[in-house]
Write a structure and sequence with these properties.
Layout (H helix, E strand, L loop, with lengths): L2 E3 L6 E4 L2 E4 L14 E7 L8 E3 L3 E6 L3 E5 L2 E5 L4 E4 L5 E4 L6 E8 L6 E3 L3
Antiparallel strand pairs: 1-9, 2-3, 4-11, 5-12, 6-9, 6-11, 7-8, 7-10
Length: 120
């Protein structure tokens, strides 16, 4: 089941010379030995093709405001929001017409050929 963690809901804590927000504590379904980090840029006014993964869990960190659809649920993401998509959950992104969208996608484990396209 998709999980959304809102950066705006996290409490900011003062540290020595910086502040920190703990946005998400995530437990994975299985032991993870590796991961892959992908910086995704979606041109303004466009979107990605919906797809699923058979085995990997994917964590997304919004680096700009954008829209994400997971299965049949639409999320408006703000900078710093974190989403966990589990295997079999269809997901896609759309950038607003005013600017490109960016998201950091982190694959657990780092399976590079686990993507299956869905009908848009």
């Amino acid at each position: 089941m998709v999980r959304l963690y809102r950066a705006a809901d996290a409490k900011e804590m003062a540290r020595a010379g910086y502040s920190a927000k703990y946005i998400a504590d995530i437990k994975f379904r299985r032991k993870i030995n590796d991961s892959g980090f992908i910086l995704v840029t979606i041109p303004a006014g466009t979107g990605t093709v919906p797809h699923i993964h058979s085995e990997l869990e994917e964590v997304f960190v919004a680096l700009s405001p954008l829209e994400m659809v997971v299965s049949d649920t639409t999320f408006q993401l703000d900078v710093g929001d974190v989403v966990l998509a589990e295997p079999g959950e269809s997901h896609s992104f759309s950038a607003y017409s005013s600017s490109d969208g960016q998201v950091l996608a982190i694959k657990f484990p780092n399976l590079k050929n686990d993507k299956k396209q869905q009908n848009p």
